[in-house]
Every structure is written in C-alpha cells, then in structure tokens.
Amino acid sequence: MVTDHSSLGVVTFRRAVELSSNVAALKISLAVGRDLMYKTAKDLGFDAKTGIELPGESAGEIHDVETWSQMEQAAIGFGNGLTVTALQLCNAFAAVGAGGELYRPHVLKAIISPDGGIITRV
Q1: Which of 70, 80, 92, 113 could bridge across to 75 with cysteines, CB 3.0–4.6 Å?
Q2: Can you tell me the distance from the alpha carbon of 78 to that of 81, in angstroms, rounded to the nearest whole number?
Q3: How far apart are CA 104 and CA 88, in angstroms?
Q4: Are 102 and 113 in contact (CB under 8 A)?
Q5: CA 25/CA 23 separation, integer angstroms
Q6: Which residues have CB under 8 Å from 15's CB, separation 6+?
Q7: Would you give the distance in Å from CA 44 to the centre of its chain?
Q8: pTM
C-alpha cells in the first residue's frame, strides 16, 4: 500500500510535487502508462552513460518495461525502482530547461572569452 507522510486530501499537480506526494505520483504514473514512462526515462538519458570525459561512469538501471508490475511502475513514478546517477539526474533537469534537448555534459577546465582570454579557471 502506498501512502503519503500525512493525509493530503485532494491536491493540485503543483501541490503534489511540492509535497512530494507518493499517492499522486502513483496515480499519475498509472495514468501516463508504463510505455510512455519508460520512453521518457530513456529519452532523459537514464539507463545510459552520459559520455562525460570521466572514468568509471555508471549507466544506472531501468528494468525492461515488459517486466514491470503495476507496483514497480508506481514505484518508478515516485523515484524508486530504477537507479540513476547524480549526473544523469542533473542532465535530465538541464534537458527540461533546454526545451527537451538532452546534451552531453562536459568537464570544464576554464571559461574562455570570445577573444581567447581566460575568464576563469574551474
């Protein structure tokens, strides 16, 4: 049984996100459907390495969508049932901010001005 930390009653989507409602996430994940949830997770780069220039990067893990039970689908809706790295999560947030475009992250050594001067070293 999925519950929230306290009884929230009827809430808007925004309020459900603000309150981190597991019940709302469950209902939304079931309404969206497992195929779209899976596609979106893959499109956001979960279950794949980002390609950053650092050794030892993990790809995270999403189980095959065909094996998802309703409970696993619901758990994925509120952030359990899959593994992602902090970098993948940051990259997914960046993609949302970039209008849905998923970019490959890079490690910076310096920020260089258009005329070639170093603005700052990272």
Answers
A1: 80
A2: 9
A3: 10
A4: no
A5: 5
A6: 8, 21
A7: 7
A8: 0.79
- Tokens in use for 54? 């650092």
Query: What does the alpha-carbon distance between residue 80 and residue 56 come to, in Å, rounded to a whole number?
Result: 23
Q: Is the pLDDT of residue 22 over 90?
A: no
Say how far apart CA 25 and CA 52 lie, in whole Å: 31
Extended beta strands in 42-109, E state: 61-62, 82-83
pLDDT on residue 96: 92
| Distance (Å, whole) CA 110 – CA 90 | 20
Q: What is the mean pLDDT of the chain?
A: 91
List pLDDT tens digits, range 72-99: 998 898 888 899 999 999 999 999 999 9
